[in-house]
Amino acid sequence: xxxxxxxxxxxxxxxxxxxxxxxxxxxxxxxxxxxxxxxxxxxxxxxxxxxxxxxxxxxxxxxxxxxxxxxxxxxxxxxxxxxxxxxxxxxxxxxxxxxxxxxxxxxxxxxxxxxxxxxxxxxxxxxxxxxxxxxxxxxxxxxxxxxxxxxxxxxxxxxxxxxxxxxxxxxxxxxxxxxxxxxxxxxxxxxxxxxxxxxxxxxxxxxxxxxxxxxxxxxxxxxxxxxxxxxxxxxxxxxxxxxxxxxxxxxxxxxxxxxxxxxxxxxxxxxxxxxxxxxxxxxxxxxxxxxxxxxxxxxxxxxxxxxxxxxxxxxxxxxxxxxxxxxxxxxxxxxxxxxxxxxxxxxxxxxxxxxxxxxxxxxxxxxxxxxxxxxxxxxxxxxxxxxxx
Length: 389
Ligand code: PHB
Fold this sequence. Notes:
binds P-hydroxybenzoic acid, 12 helices, 389 residues, 6-stranded mixed β-sheet
């Protein structure tokens, strides 16, 4: 009898600790590119989340925050859809997050709507994404948001003729169309445009066309990472710099994570973007330290890591404000009104559009202490996505 009671007491004690903690766990399903040519996207997002948890811990208001990762393996709408469904049905996540590439975000939007699950976009940057579901909130940027300032800056600084090169899918088409419209409105001339495939582009023939057209500058949008390295290699080999052609671009080209691998040909390139590892602020210093403490120093944080860091801050605030009871509508109310001082500067979600309002910096690639950085020298504060104004 005593023995039985003892066993019951032990079982009860175990029940009171373990399942109670489990019931309070909030799960975030991170849908990202963790393998294939875009594997750095998932890694950067996860590393940004780890930096956030390094500073703020993995619990908020008594609720443990668990990240469940799923790999899309690249731009694969079918896989993105399947893993998002698994996260909701099997893992019972309360939030979806991540999404490096537009096709993956677009494929999951209807699932967020049907299941009323908040979907925190940490990179995918085609303007239309937030219109695909009322449960989407974006912590990154849109290509039009970064590109209008580039066109404005170029026009004011003597650039009169441009050739555009853009990746042939959502964000590239947004960047190309926005640049052409804004640049022409400022009196500029477009001497040619080319779209390159998203998968395995071979840049040499495109770069040659640019050279033959003799523009003052080439405007380039390529998805962050390896493609920028390949583009700059062709640009260098074909002697475009010697021919006097300048490169201007949204900051995806000079992604902090690959900048050093581009070497000297990237020096002096001017881009517009929301984050540089060289941004001088106490928040960025704390972020860089936490990022290195959590992930080691072989990887430099880029704009995807920062968007993931801020997206996590918003998820933590939502869990705290709702005491862990995550109802889709109520969660969206908190997420839509989120504001913070990010490592990139002050940011706020615009509740009308669920897009982030942020400073767009004009930066020049320079060498500092032996490393290449996007050094900010001008800025456009409080920029909204221009397609929704
Ligand atoms: C996207 O697929 O939306 C995307 C990918 C990489 C970028 C920007 C946008 O650098």
